[in-house]
Amino acid sequence: xxxxxxxCIILFFTSLVIGQNEIKIHYTVDLTRIESDSFYVMLxxxxxxxxxxxxxxxxxAPGAYEVMNVGRFVGNFExxxxxxxxxxxxxxxVNQYVIYNAKSLGKIQYQVEDSYDTxxxxxxxxxxxxxxxxxxxxxxxxxxxxxxxxxxxxxPVTVNFNYPKDWLVGTALPTEDGKYFAEDYDRLVDSPxxxxxxxxxxxxxxxxxVDVYCYSQNxxxxxxxxxxxxxPIVKAVEKFxxxxxxxxxxxxxxxxxxxxxxxxxxxxxxxxxxxEDDITQLLExxxxxxxxxxxxxxxxxxxxxxxxxxxNFEKPVASRHLWFYEGVTNWMESxxxxxxxxxxxADFFDxxxxxxxxxxxxxxxxxxxxxxxxxxxxxxYEFEWYHAYSRGGLVGLLLDLKILExxxxxxxxxxxxxxLLNEYKTKSFPDEKFFNIIVEHSYPEIREIxxxxxxxxxxxxxxxxxxxxxxxxxxxxxxxxxxx
Length: 484
Ligand SMILES: [Zn+2]
Known about the structure:
By secondary structure, this protein is an alpha+beta fold. It contains 13 helices and 20 strands. Zinc ion binds at residues 265, 292, 296, 326, 329.
């Protein structure tokens, strides 16, 4: 009994301390002022107890693997005290504003350009991580519009948007009476919003509610057509995993003529910026992309390292394991479609595996390991890290075949992933210990695959592995002639 009382006291004091450290942060974004292609952002704040404070814009965002420096898009930054008098500020860095006399800080205002129509052409923002503000639609990836006070990244945030009454809002953020809630800045960034003249459709897959939102510039496609296309994929992933690890999910699709295609995964949603082609081509290109992004609900969104868990928005820090986040996701995406009967075995090996092999050998430097390119994704390996998709996916196949063989075909990589998912659903793994963790959850023999083909640069033993399952591996021969 004593122990229980002691535990309660600790909890009580902990909650008091958290309460004391919290400040009130409420954003209002006016989406009706589109004349300057900039978001007008107002932030009301209460409770800062330091003499000065740094307001930070993001240098990058999870999943983007590029330096963004959102501060480049910010202008007219002003801070006011509770009496609406201007406070002294100092721009310390492209992404940082120091605000003085912060104890009396009551409001911040700034404008931030939308990245789709910006005149800043250097280091363009990846379309799926960007922002857009137009008369019939708005796209907000949180890091492109919102910042945070240093030391308060974990503070809850609320947001209101002003927009025309007949617009729809697509997002995974919870809402009440028009106000959106994020438990912290990371969640705000993790929950893109698409607002405007959208169509919406909802799928119920077991006890998971999947909302599909669509903006189509020329009304070529609607959410219900996309939802019909996505339903078999979501069901195939559910069948593959046994159960979906989320209870709600939102697909946000933005189609326009002049966009570079891209997609970005989030914990409870994914956002797609795609060129608006004819509908058949649209659906063809949408399928593998949407199923890849949806499969990210497993990794990195649930299974991820400590580096991703405590995301550093000030200075990008890379994880070693893009091969797992992107490559194993690729493997999982194609394998769940194969096992769900959506593609044939011939499609799987002839198309997907062969094309990964070609991409891996033709495009990438075979002397750089997957770990090295992952660690260098923000600087020296800004192209090389893409090897994670093809070689990482092939490593996924090797791991699966080896685990199947070692277990007498009772379990495969999928079962290891499910074990990891259960263990790491609510916590992260130490980045440098992941090989050990995979080995602990599978077989000692697995270490060799990880060390040689992920940590090292040995050529993948495709012939040996494909032979075991009755497939011929014919390596590509360089003829010196151009392909017909
Ligand atoms: Zn991905």
